[in-house]
Amino acid sequence: MAATAPSDPRPLVGEPLSLDLLNTVWTHEGGRQDLLTDTEGLAVWLAANGLDDRFGADGATLEHLLSARAALARAVAAPGDPAAAARVDEVLAHGRIRARLTGEGPGEEPEFADPAWGAAWLAARDYLRLLATAPARIRRCAHEACVLHFFDTSRNGTRRWCSMAACGNRAKASRHYARSRET
User: Which of 5, 36, 86, 119 ranks highest by number of CB atoms within 10 Å?
Assistant: First the structure.
């Protein structure tokens, strides 16, 4: 009988890999939560992103993923900062893309000298993809107490909240409360 993986406790999942890595840190009832405090949390994150069959949930992978998360957090917080870019580049130095010709045509395959860098490298590479696609749509939730990030896929590019049901609703409730106190 196979053991079932623990469920993912994070409030926002399903974002692109780089932002999903940033979202392994969140706040809950005023306290900071971190999924990547141990290899069990790493296993949850790898499974949530379909990477559990490619990379092991071991200490080296966790260490490299935490390094990538710190680099990405700095790059997202300070776009254009050369020091932040250098930290992302340090992660990217641990892998490369190998061009291939497959039965379906041209293809690309990531390669890593050390497989423990694989998940971290893929997250950093994904950030480059988002920057090339639409850098202005990489956003942090507009709620002042929220630390989550998302890639705005709305038609007009006007999404402000990680979740309308959570942060968006809290903001609406706060505005309503402020208006009702004024009257």
Answer: 119
* Residue 46 CB partners (closer than 8 Å, separation 6+): 52, 55, 57, 119
Tokens of 83: 């020091």
Where is 139: in which H helix or E strand? strand 138-140
Q: Mind listing the pLDDT tens digit for each residue in 93-140? A: 999 999 999 999 999 999 999 999 999 999 999 999 999 999 999 999
Three-state DSSP class for 81? coil
**From 18-22, 25-29, 63-67, the region with the lowest mean pLDDT:** 25-29
User: Which token pair is 24?
Assistant: 């392994």
Amino acid at 105: G
SS (H, E, C) 72-102: HHHHHHCCCCHHHHHHHHHHHCCEEEEEEEE
| DSSP assigned state of 12 | -
